[in-house]
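User: Predict the complex with magnesium ion.
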Amino acid sequence: MNAGVQRLAILGSTGSVGTSTLDVVARHPERFQVVGLSAFQRTDELVAQCERFRPRVAVVPDEPRAAAVRAALAARGLATEVAVGAQALSELASAADVDSVMAAIVGAAGLSPCMAAARAGKRLLLANKEALVVGGGLFMRAVQEGGATLLPIDSEHSAIFQCLPEDRGAWASRIDHIVLTASGGPFRQRDPDTLHGITPEQAVAHPNWVMGRKISVDSATMMNKALEVIEARWLFDLPPDRIRVVIHPQSIIHSMVVCRDGSVLAQLGTPDMKVPIAFGLSFPERIESGAPRLDFTQLGALSFEPPDSRRFPGLQLAWDTLAGPAGSTAVLNAANEVAVAAFLAGTIGFTAIHTLNARTLDRVTPALAEDHGLDDLIALDTRARAVATELMKDLAR
Ligand code: NDP
Ligand code: MG
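Assistant: Here is the predicted structure with magnesium ion placed in the model:
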């Protein structure tokens, strides 16, 4: 790294994780230099971020948005260059003047730039769980071969990472299993027979966390936890039967490691993404995150319960797809992205998300070669989306 200053690219800087990252960065101007930012639709926000953080480059998805951003930057006398399209994201993620990449794009759209950062040996701060769910072993090999450092930002995985021994080789022999905690989302206690009437606004109103709309819906269905089980399988190289899930409605314990001897290590904190973000940014040091502190005298009880498979039928799909042919988790992710977008658009009902995911998995059997590459995964993702979109017609309201 450059004389103590970490040069940072933030992919998805206009989102929930992206803006929280900039909050933490702004507290430590001596430590971080923002080299690149990216937006998809919220270009006004992107321009405001450029004005504040003065990056070398800002990436937008298409020419019309690029023209608007260029004009807005010129009007403010800013020299930030505007780059366009998916390829520009990968170029930013692997640029020579970038030390660290915060991957905060939502969905499989983040896979290619994550792979580019991994191959280029960057320090990769991974919030974009879908990229790992789709990329799986290929992603992890790119990290290893590229000499990248992969730091989990998802709060559960940051918690596990913080509880694990530093010596990676010791993980398998010292750990019995890990326990990912889940809040249970807004419908934890709702009668499962009434879930079909849920509206998008009810689904995105998470009790503990403020997040983007897609992950908020995933939390309400617990598909988020299914994706996180798959994410943990790859991040920590654990067999799926050594990954468990418990509902912990207060979201204070962010996850736990159960050691061979029965000792349990947990990481606690207020539910604020600035904590795992600051940890990833500063690892192995610790810096001020700006998150409120836990006050144990005010905390009250911490409670736990098993997830109810009638309310959350999608959770089991994590273990099912991990046991299936390679690429099954990519099919599940693609179906779920199509389903959540359709639910948010009002096209299908809430419980139809599970139906569509299960039907797409029944219909699409991946046949990836042992030595498959990124293009094969992208083709599988595209095929699964097409099938899910077709199957959705039978489920439309
Ligand atoms: P948001 O929806 O708030 O932000 C997503 C970001 O990605 C935005 O900057 C958005 O741009 C950009 N984006 C969206 N689609 C595309 C695309 N097709 N190509 C390029 N850029 C795109 O999501 P979150 O910040 O909530 O989540 C980001 C990732 O982090 C997700 O994978 C999520 O699962 C994970 N995560 C989030 C947590 C949270 O607390 N929010 C916690 C743990 C993990 P724009 O806004 O300009 O349209
Ligand atoms: Mg999480």
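The two ends are 53 Å apart (CA to CA).
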